[in-house]
Structure formats: structure tokens, C-alpha cells
Amino acid sequence: MIVRYGGDEFVVVANVRACADALVIVTRIEHYMEAKNRDLPFELSFSIGFSCFPNDGKKFDELLRLADKRMYEIKYNKKS
To answer: pTM for the full model?
Structure first.
């Protein structure tokens, strides 16, 4: 399930067996976005953070907060 969370932020909720499976989803999204980016007359930037239940938390707000934190860390590192 993909949901627009606000502004330019989206949440993907996926039923996966392991965090490694979530990483596969993230990698596929990144490759898709990078391919689409080549077709645009401008540069599109994006950052993806993710978290996994129950390893990273048991409540949705905990998982969302950690994914958001990780996304901003990635965004910051891209600018450095």
C-alpha cells in the first residue's frame, strides 16, 4: 500500500518476511526513480528511509518516526 503522507512524502506499507525484503523494495523504488529521472528535463531528488516491524518498533508511530529519521539522515548525507 502506498499512501501520500503529506506534501511530498509517501508511506509504503508492505508485508515482508524480513528487513532484507524491505531493502529489496527500497532498492527497486530507487532504481525506478533513477530511471525516470533520466527522462525528465530537470533533476528530481528523493530520499528513502525505512523501518521494519517488529525489529524497529511495534507501533506504527514508532516505525514511522524511525523511517522519517533515517530518510532525513540520507537526505543530509546527499547534500554533504
So the answer is: 0.78
